[in-house]
Specification:
With 93 residues, this protein is mostly helical. It has a domain of 61 residues. It contains three helices and no strands. The longest helix is centred in the C-terminal third of the chain and has 14 residues. The radius of gyration is 13 Å and the shape is elongated.
Length: 93
Amino acid sequence: MQSTHDNLGDDGTNPLASVISGMPEVWHRLLEEHVPDNYGRCLACRNASTAGVPWPCTLQVIAADARAICLGAGELPPERGADDASAQCPASC
């Protein structure tokens, strides 16, 4: 899955990101799993027949967008790595 910005909603966000923004356990997990390997490819998108896709993959982009929707643009922490997906979503998500 390679990241593209096709099929965005009227507000410029991915509709799937809007849906999972209210499910912090989902976007946390996606952000934890869809990380780059040493070659800049997504670890989670790798399978037996391919080395994976370039990172960031579509699911990582959607999860990051969902996090931004949930936390709000002014509340986003600095760029997080795979070991730092513990930021809590406010109760409003």
